[in-house]
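Question thread 4412

I'm putting together a teaching handout and wanted feedback from people who do this every day. The idea is simple: show students a protein as raw sequence, then show them the structure tokens that encode its fold, then repeat with a second protein so they can compare. Below is the first pair exactly as I plan to print it.
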Amino acid sequence: MAHYPHSVTLDSQKCKGCTNCIKRCPTQAIRVQGGKAKILPELCIDCGECIRVCPHHAKKAVFDSFESIQKFKYKIAIPAPSLYGQINNLTDINFCLTALLDIGFDDVFEVAVAAEIISNATSILIRSGKLKYPVISSACPAVERLIRVRFPQLCENVLPFHSPMEYAARLAKRRAAQKTGLPRKDIGVFFISPCPAKITDIKHPINSKKSSVDGALAISDIYPCLVSAMNKIETPKNLASSSMVGVGWANSGGESVAISDNYYLAADGIENVIKVLEEVEDDKLNGLHFIELNACSGGCVGGVLTVENPYVAKTRIHLLKKHLPSEQEQSSDSNVEAELTWKQQLTSAPALKLSEDLNEALNMMHEIEKITSRLPGLDCGSCGSPSCRALAEDIVRGHAQESDCVFKLRDKVRQLAQTFETLNIEDI
């Protein structure tokens, strides 16, 4: 698997080696060795769970600074719908959009608008019967990467559409180029992001050579200046063109409701997502047409780069939707499906191969099974590996030893103590 920069990084100076992160990582991408955590880039899906649970703030997300927008002559903000859930008593999206112009952007384009177009295209495609059921949403990049690493056989079930973020960037650049006459290289599109997985999807997209998004700003980073600007607005500009359909994508279940198919399932939170994928893998959910999965609890409102409690934000989105039109007529090209569709199918990402040589890999696998059978099977994480099997694999790879298991070490110490006691008795 190719190495690429991840948005989730580790500050080793702050890390205390507490093992909280290794217990929550959904792909077992973290080890604690030498008293410090280590992220295995081949396995990391940038879900941000380690950021959420680290009590020492040793994990963090890397995102663009606000000053980076100045690299472009014409600057466009594309806010995620989850941004609206961070703002108290928001009844008019125009206040938020106008504030984005006031803090330095030249234009705004709502990701919610792109979400509405994608919802319609998805509904049409699902009804056509061309896709394999159940169709799994491709909106959450952390889920996409989880499927590639842990559930590769489900790659063909993933909806082959670009995310609303990506499509919004394309529409925004096209509109700006027509409006200003500027070449596209002078037009910068910046996503206001709730999570690190979307930032990684910009820097290293899975299904395209290059993202149309030029940078990502964290909601938590711009929130203070954004709210300050909103408080100064008396009459906002009429900029909003989204409806409750697109804004609803901020919450778990919003995408499913938008495609108007009753045979759907929506799950949020990485542990629940994994359980659903396991059931799909075991052919237990064959009656469903569509499955919406969000790695963060509550949906995108629960991203680690937000500022509000996800349940509070979720309620705010519900309240905001009461002030929005039920739907808006969104203009889109006739070839929208072709523009949305990936150029190539999602493929598995085989991570941490034991060996390129098949015979050697089989021997290593056999050794892993032997070592695992000798370990206690408690998966306590005290050794620095997330499970006993992971420790066995680390041992075979030469990154750990069996005595790293505190229970095996205790047994060795006990045996040594008994030996010394026996020697002492014989000396007497």
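The second pair follows. I'd like the answer to focus on this one:
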Amino acid sequence: MAFHTLGCKLNYSETSTLSRMLEKEGFEKREFDEPADVYVINTCSVTENADKECRHLVRRIQRQSPESLVVITGCYAQLKPREIASIPGVDLVLGAAEKFNIVQHLKEWSKGDPTKICSCDIGELSSFHASFSLNDRTRTFLKVQDGCDYNCSFCTIPMARGKSRSDTIAGVLRNVEEAVAAGVKEVVLTGVNLGDFGRSEVALTGDETNFFTLIRELEQVEGIQRYRISSIEPNLLSPEIIEWVAGSSKFMPHFHIPLQSGSNRILASMRRRYKRELYAERVQQIKALMPHCAIGVDVITGFPGETGVEFRETVDFLQGLEVSYLHVFTYSERDHTKALEIKPVVPIATRQERNKILRNLSYMKMQYFTAQHQGQVRKVLFEKQAHDTLMEGYTDNYIKITTPYRAEWVNQLVDWTI
């Protein structure tokens, strides 16, 4: 079997779990460019490029291994199962409710059968399947929440992953302890809307469970030296969470906070649940308590109706914030989203030019952030061998370090002078 993952850290955690499930059934794992009996592509559908890449991968498999079974799962598989099933070479399409039943589906399947679609009405999906990655024993991406109850006008994720639901705190703790037993030193908490952890369960059970409760419990787990919060909405990043991280010995000084636009009019058009003023307040509180903290930002360029003046608002807003780097996305039309109704449409060339401007700003922000720490000694967790003679790792505040490979440093915290 061979796997390929498109998209977010959540997908990587699920791919790793699916791989372990098949290994327990006797499958041997191969690299994706090697011959395999079964190829599984875990897809994303946030952008059109992700859809195109899935189709490209299927064609590649057909050229190199035409007799193999090809399984497509993930967000694209849930959103457009018939479109995927029409791609020559695809054998099995598993939607959101069926991906974790992959073992049973493979047992019932053989090459030459008609393409089978196993999907569901996303509104009926209510179960939560825990998953975490163990591909690199240094760091694990641990899914603690799935789905989303927000309805941002550009986003298909609620249609692909369903309503918000979470693991239990006891379930999360068990998975962390399993990761500890495997030698993991760092856990990255992931979810579609991570800050929403536990809210749906409170409504059902009345128990006082939320993301703040979870991180306090995780602090007590022995053996894990680092936690990171992968991405959290600014309206759900409460002051008490920021204060907790500032005083924690295990939660790293590193936040990733989606912004999407620095224009309040565009934020409203996107149906985001905050204004730029709240975002600035959160950044200011973080930097007041943790001047050394890294802050990453998601931004979308070329959203329908975004004028040159509003784009400049975003650029000026980000230039004035003490953030460390940007993840820049070019707006991509998605079927069945409200954004399709918003006019005027920003030309593709303009979107790409704005993307380039923000990527340049991101580079300058990261250079400046790194320079602020020059000469400081910070702990680096070296993760892997990046190339033949190099290895890489990250400081507590997410500065990437690359150095000549030393086997004794792998999965170790090393004092490093920036």
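Top answer:
Good format. For the second protein you could add a caption like this: Residues 2-120 form a domain with the Rossmann fold fold (CATH 3.40.50.12160). The first strand starts at residue 2 and ends at 5.
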